Amino acid sequence: MLRSTMTVLAKSSTELRSESVRSLYDQLTARLKDLNHLNGISGLLQWDQEVMMPSKAAASRADQLSTLAGVSHEMQTSSTLGSLLEELEQRQDLSAELNPYELANIRLSRKTYKEETLLPVELVKANAALNSKSVGAWVEARKESDFSKFAPFLQDQVNILRQKVAYKMKGGVCEEARKINEKARASLGLTETDECYKGYYQALLNDYEPGFKDDRLQVLFSDLKQNLVPLIAKIKAKNFQHDNSYIEGDFDVKKQTEFSHRISKQIGFDTDAGRLDVSTHPFTGGAHPTDVRMTTRYTINNFQEGITGTIHETGHSLYEQGRNKEFVDTPVSQALSLGVHESQSLLWERMVALSKPFWTYTLPLLKEQFPDREDLQAVTPEQYYNAFNRVEPGFIRIEADEVTYPMHVILRYEIEKALVEGDIQVADVPALWNAKMKEYLGLEVTEDRIGCLQDTHWAVGLIGYFPTYTLGSIYAVQIFATAKAAIPNLDENLAKGEFPVLKEWLNKNVHEQGSLRESGDDLIFDLTGKHLDSSLYVKYLTDKYTAIYDL
Amino acid sequence: MLRSTMTVLAKSSTELRSESVRSLYDQLTARLKDLNHLNGISGLLQWDQEVMMPSKAAASRADQLSTLAGVSHEMQTSSTLGSLLEELEQRQDLSAELNPYELANIRLSRKTYKEETLLPVELVKANAALNSKSVGAWVEARKESDFSKFAPFLQDQVNILRQKVAYKMKGGVCEEARKINEKARASLGLTETDECYKGYYQALLNDYEPGFKDDRLQVLFSDLKQNLVPLIAKIKAKNFQHDNSYIEGDFDVKKQTEFSHRISKQIGFDTDAGRLDVSTHPFTGGAHPTDVRMTTRYTINNFQEGITGTIHETGHSLYEQGRNKEFVDTPVSQALSLGVHESQSLLWERMVALSKPFWTYTLPLLKEQFPDREDLQAVTPEQYYNAFNRVEPGFIRIEADEVTYPMHVILRYEIEKALVEGDIQVADVPALWNAKMKEYLGLEVTEDRIGCLQDTHWAVGLIGYFPTYTLGSIYAVQIFATAKAAIPNLDENLAKGEFPVLKEWLNKNVHEQGSLRESGDDLIFDLTGKHLDSSLYVKYLTDKYTAIYDL
């Protein structure tokens, strides 16, 4: 079963010049599809590694992934692909010949080609080597709660990220960051060779949230901070919690599993095009929109964790399964950004599964599933709703509720931005972290293990990633509000377990849109008529928790 | 995570000439290892397809496998690999510089390189296209029990196999077949361009059983036929069967599963380096010796099927897990042949699990596992042994016992050899099949569905494959006899469930030997001091079943 696309020799630019736009585009997509198949394989191998793989296979799996990455990189940076993209760039008649999805494929593949070709192989290798050492150091440091053991690796990560950004700026793939940097240099009277990292965060952010501007992020986050810090303080001062004994205690894992499968299927997860399994850290991955692999985890004495994890990942999975079928296997069918992806998981987790209509429908099923839990039988949907919506400031981001979660993200955003742009030093991180934790959530961090060492992101160079969690929740509120306005009686539908109406609206308005637009903000604007706006999110949280806590 | 081996430009032959043998060998193995990683990935994808994959992913998985096959083929036929092999072939000092395993790696990779490069791409594509159409036609034909619907596809398979053999003969990768062909032409007074397919079966056989001679196969098979046909007739004439009610009836699948996992682990399957799951057709595959994936299947009312399947696949898995660690990821560590692989599954399935010592140990565990089966509690190991060793001629190969199984294989061997070499026509197959079934097993085939259409092999061009099943059983008997002579009190060990002593002997004497030798017969000779010999096998079957059936 040979594929011809790879064996064809690169055509000369003269030969390409005589071909039609359509022919060039078809040759391009044949290559993009092969690349997509390899990416799908990599996704499957990674799922298997987390869910199925026996422990001794770790080294051989790493070898396989590394060889595969090498093959992908070869294909991604091949001169054949480069010549096709170059020739297409020359053509004046592109938009006459191609539709907007096809144009987006050219835009996206050109960007990836540039990004993959502009980094020197040595830097990529150094990066991979650093990551594996750095993760080990972080694990050790966290175990001993000793930031100093991780600090040198964090410094190396910052250095390598700065080098990457510098190459990208030179290569012309992050214009927004370059502009910010030039402006800063000018205002500070610095030359091109002087050290100045202003704008670097913008570049890193765009690795995860393409097209989104850092200064808009600052506006959104500062509004959230201004409104949520007092809201959290008010809830804390109330010193009251609803009874949540009926989400705790003994919940048989097998029965939880059945229940999770039932609910995710009812929400719209297509089990003929995906699987739900168990892993230590829940995630959604897989090989293709027809082959989505999601995981959750169950705790015997906490019902909320398993079902919430399942519904969150179901949101991600619906996005994946709902991707554009006409442009399958090409870049335009891929998710627009991490933030938009997160909006789909959070929309189902928070807007739906933390709502009263959802529990009106679901609670009777739950009582049926756990007939032995006598305490459950008399509970009302309102009580279950209150139990699920408990707000309690804590040290750990991944355990946070929807009100305090943004503060965890904003704290990280402020620190990582300052770090990359040179406003603070690595050694400043723990003290700054603890001060902000005190200011935003009123908590005293006594150990770095539950402070600045809790997350793995920085250990693998994921700086610019954290904001997408909270962008996701802002997107989610705004998208859900639009859906509610567009779908008559949505709440009534949800209260009857009629989820497809919402799923289909999201399929059409979000999932099938893929990467057609250049940023999540553009998608939101086209969808809602407004730019992304934190005020709706603040109002949602304030109204909801004022009622729950009787503030 | 870039790999450097693939990005390196091909060196000129002058440059290579100045390098040491060791350096050339190291460059070769770096490439062989990358190829092996891709093969491992393909193995994992195929396991996933049978065991985990959701149904709608069939098309995307086919795309992924096809792209991967293309990448492997590119790598396998690259000029870099070709130049390295060519340069190594020139060197006079190879055996002074390299050890026998390393020399085997050169021999094996040269052979694969030749085989992969000598077929024209068009033929490979035509073959893949034929296979997918042919399988569909076979499924239809079997459903309707109508051979004529499959016949044209079988003819196409024969034609394409003949073309492949002709290319291989020209390319010098099947010398034995070429010699037979030349001799036949000479004796028939034919020129080089006359049609003559003598020796073609030899070439096909060697795709699965390298180095094994077809004329030796004929001798072995004719001896088996001569001895087993009367043995089978004698058993049939006896018209007696031992009670096997205690392997039938209700065996809870969950409990069977636990039992299978327990036994396979006790035999020596390393669950940290592999998995046991369920699939429609049991198989052993996976990604690496550290990542072996085997499957079985359970039937609620037949205990024998599940446990036998598990033990058979455990035998295959022990071979895979036991492969040479020093030469991991290179060709010499791979299994020598399909027949030798099958010998390992059959040794455990028949020599061990169909023996009295095994049931002496296992029956008490079985009684414990199924305490509700009162009928089991009084059964003796002897009775269980008799029940498991029932002989009953039947139409279906995969359901056959060890006495009648060889006749199914010999029948197919005789037909497929005659077909490929032009002694019969496709249209002759059903009548010939039915006549042989009558002659060897005394059965009247009334429907092609349970006759010549029962197996999928011919539909995907697997001609030359069937003999390896029976070669496997002859190897198994001879290897087990040698193990028994080498291991003091082996039967006593097995009767106490002490399986590691046998497993470790096989690890050392078979598994770690890999593809060091050029044929299974060479391995047998080095191991036992004798060539492969059907008389031991005949004696084993005759003695065993004379006792069981009191002949």
Automatic annotation (TrEMBL), chains A, B:
GO MF, one example: metallocarboxypeptidase activity
Species, as recorded: Mortierella hygrophila
Protein name, as recorded: Carboxypeptidase Taq
Gene Ontology BP annotations: proteolysis
Gene3D superfamilies: 1.10.1370.30
PANTHER family linked: CARBOXYPEPTIDASE 1, METAL-DEPENDENT CARBOXYPEPTIDASE
Coiled-coil parts of chain: none
A Pfam family hit: Peptidase_M32
InterPro entries assigned to the protein according to its UniProt record, in alphabetical order: Peptidase_M32_Taq (IPR001333)
